[in-house]
Amino acid sequence: MTSSALAGYLIVSGLLLVIGVVGFLVRRNLIVMFLCTELMFQGAAIAFIAMGRYLFDYSGQVMVIFILTVAAAEAALALALVVLMHRQGDSLDADAFAELTE
Amino acid sequence: MDMFLPYIACLTFALALYAALRPSPITVRVGMIAVAVAAAGWLLGLVAGSLSAFADASQGVFFVIFSLCAIASALRMITHDQPIYSALFFVLVVIATAGLFVLLEAEFMAFALVIVYAGAILITYMFVLMLANQATSQDEPDTQAAYDRIPREPAAAVAVGFLLLCLISGTVIKGTDVSIPGNLPAPGNPQAQWATLEHLSVQFEREVAELDPDFAWPPVSDEAGNSIHIEGTEVFIIAEDGSTLVLPDSMLPRNTQQVGWSLVNDFPVSLELAGVILLMAMFGAAIIARRAIELGEQEKRRVLLGEVSKSEDLS
Amino acid sequence: MNAVAALTELSKLCAMPAVDASAVIHASGMHWASFIMWMPLISLLLCGICAVCKVRSKAPAIITVVCLATSFVLTILLWHNYQGPEVIHVFDWLNITWEEGSFVANFAFYVDSLTLLWMLFVTGLGTLIAIYASEYMEHDIGKGYTRFFAGVSVFLFAMTCLVMGDNLLMLYLGWEGVGFASYWLIGYFYQRPSAVAAAKKAFIVNRIGDVGLALAIYLIWTTFGTVQYDEITSVLETHQYSASFGGWSVQAIPYLLMLAAFGKSAQLPLYVWLPDAMEGPTPVSALIHAATMVTAGVYLIIRTYPLFMLEGSHALEVVAWVGGLTAFFAATMAMAQYDIKRIMAYSTVSQLGYMFLGLGVVTSYGAAYHVFTHAFFKAVLFLTCGAIMHGFAGQLDLRRLSGLRKMKGWKIVSYTMLVGCLCLAGFPFTSGYFSKDAILAEAFVTQGTGFEFLGWLAIFTAGLTAYYTFRVWFRVCAGPVHFEPGDELHGEEPSNFHPHAPRFAINFVLVVIALGALLAALPYFMPNETEGLHGGWIAEMVNDSPAAAGVPGAVLDSAHGANIGHEVAHGDILGMDPHKAMYYISAIVGFIGIGIAFFIHLLSRPTADKLRSTLLSNKATRWLPTAMENKWYVDEFYIAVIRSPLWILGKIFSLFDRYFIDGALVNGIAAIPRVIARWFSPLHNGAIQSYAISMFGGALLIALLMLFMPEILAFMQTLSPDTANEQTIATLGGGK
Questions:
Q1: Residue A20: inside a domain, yes or no?
Q2: How many angstroms separate the CA atoms of C517 and C519, rounded?
Q3: C 702-721 residues inside an 8 A Cβ radius of B
Q4: Digit-coded pLDDT (tens) for B157-204
Q5: pTM over 0.90
Q6: Which residue range(s) make up the domain with A59?
Q7: Which end of chain A is more exposed for a tag (fewer CB within 10 A), N or C?
Q8: Owning domain of residue C708
Q9: Total tally of structural domains belonging to chain C
Q10: Does C332 reside within a domain?
Q11: Which of A22, A28, A92, A95 to mutate: most C Cβ within 10 Å?
């Protein structure tokens, strides 16, 4: 794999990361916010795989397995919390829970 | 000027993204997403050079297709009003990413991704979305919540996104600039791929036996324990009696075997810990959701009954 | 013993030693003389203690009278020990020397005969008026009695400083001090807005004159190098009073001094404060605005007389013209007023005009004599007006009072008032007659632009003076008995009002001062010890001073300045020697004035009203009574020309201050943090995503900066090539 190709894969991963960040900061629906974090994970995964392929080191792919694991665990717990919050406020709006204001 | 082009592409991308985020008719949004995708493609083109960067043309074409698909789906995911559709577009992203993984010769990861994400995590998301009455329809705008339709501070968020994209592109461009010596790590040694085969001794022996029954096992290994030698594109092993056997590409272990071996050999502790994490997550989710649901039901019952009794008093 | 012998004996008593005035003795064992000044100051301190201890008796009055009497006794002692002009050094005040020059203004007394003349009547009248005020102000015990006597003490301290100082700076100190005391005492009834306004007016108008004095002192110091009187005189001597000495600044000095004198002594155009100053209590009017403070201007000019005598200087002519015109105008205004105190105030302005006229026609003797006699008779007139005011609950309108001399207990007041009026009118053989004559005669004697016209004008004014003075007396003290109470009833009912006749203190003082007014004619008859002098004791007193040029018959040598400057030529009036002619002319004019007043205001009072109404009804003459009653609209003119523009300017500045300085600058600058804070406050909205954006964005900016550091440095290098930066670029850009 040439360095230009690697650069291309890294840019793709970066783009997905950026889109995930923007989505996280823009959306007010809690569930969609968590979905955007998953998107960020996707970006990271691509970066790991690409670098692993470039260096012929399988640690990259192992890392992605762990990413997957953590993503799954986090999704479960986050969704449980979201359900809780929905019961509390009957809304999924992130701003409805803005208690940190002055 | 040339050095600014990638950043101009980033800027175009950001502006199109901003335009797509703001509440506007569906056609405008989709149009803006198309523009953003085009800008992303331009950026990729600037960075990757031409399709000749890839091993062969088809790889390049598939790369373009999968990456643009992923980006387009991601963009639509964050701009869509209805959360269910966001989840569905995310599935599409996952599938495109899986495609990219296949291009990168990581087929195990690709399938693992699809199974775990699209099959498990996204289903969970769907369940929660339904639970939270998020299944709204486009025809009834009243059912749509304001917090879905109207994004918060798209300008600031897009600005941040733009900065991040510039940072990443800058780093990648500088990092892959071969004119600066020592910038990139040296491309990996393909020898590493064959090294796994040596560890899979049973399979190695069986396959060598299938290839050449007369081959004297075991082959000669040098000081590092490598018996497989690579010269140019030829991969061969040397027997003790000096005969060489060229190993075909089909003997190379599959991605799954590679990953498995790496996982167990290099990261056993992490493996165990990952299991523990999953266990804890399971416990936690069960505890949180159970009580919440129970409590929530009790609350609802009380409120309903309370309201009923109140209204009886008043009337 | 006949009168002549008696007078000769008296003159021997009062004789001044014939000493060369230019030899000033720097004494000496006379340090006790400084107590003349310290006694009023001690009185002030004790009155202050009384105020702090809230004393509710006549103690402040007693303290003041005792201290002032001591000053008077000391002054007499000083007079007896007088050997010649001397300087009594009290303490070093300002004594700065450097190589090119020096500024010496010590706290020292310059005691010559002129000083003594002034001090005698200042301290004498001060004591007597303090005694008068102890009864007059008794209504105010507990409300301001102590404050009044403290004010009187301050005044006398400052006046002493003014008269006895040996340099112009001490004179200035005293000048300002008497101005302050006058302000304090005019505004004694500070709850009355008119009194407060009058006090401010007095102070401000005086200030206008003080500018002249300050500038004159500066110019004197820059030209003469000194501000001490004796040294100034000696410098002038060495230059022999030539016109070329010092250039324009020396020519300007007399005019500036004149401005100061006009302000303090209420001449045109700065006289407007004196009639309003009648808002103060009557003892104040008597002491300050009749006898002592207003003569400070005359004293200033007499003291600095040599400066007016420069060759080719027209300063004295200006003084004469201003004095003469003031005398005339003030007399016309006095003719039409109804408030007797106001009439006396205008009369004071008019008589001061006479004094300045005297100074201008080079008879400092006549001016000093008139000061002396005027102090007595004007004081007695004011004090009788005060007694009337005191007794009739503030009534001062002469249309509402009549026949006082027939009322029980008011005889002394009426007859002392008659004495004062006779002196003021210049009735033959009263003191006022002789002093006015001295001035009137000299107007025809001395050569000067239009002095003859001024002389006739002054004679006409004398007639007017006689008229308005006796208008007052015939209206108030003669005729049928009739009275109405005034505004200060102190709780009594108007219907059963009884006039409150004056008691011992007031009567005693009135009698003493009236006697003094009559006796003030005596000095005229005292034969002189000095050769060739005539004019009596006053002439002797003035002769020993730098103002000797104005003494008739004085030996004029370069030590006394004149000879050069004003030719003393004897003109004649109607073929007679002016001095003799004046005796008859002024007597006739006085009788005519008294006669007219007798006719209009006593015999047939309705005639006055008929005269006034005929004048008013006739369009051609209507302006005359209205203008006179409205004081020729001078105050209105000043308000329109000076006060209104300043007031408008003040308003503009206040708007500027409020909207620009306060609004734009102060409030604007204060608003900047507020505005900036408002820009940033939306950042604190409690939404975590927004915080995340801010934090993330900030961190990214720094990361970008670090990533692109080499490019940024290279860019800066192209902008400003600087070898010093290369090392920075190498260190920052090299590392990755």
A1: yes
A2: 6
A3: 703-704, 707-708, 711
A4: 999 999 999 999 988 888 777 676 666 777 777 777 888 888 888 888
A5: no
A6: 3-94
A7: C
A8: 700-736
A9: 2
A10: no
A11: A95
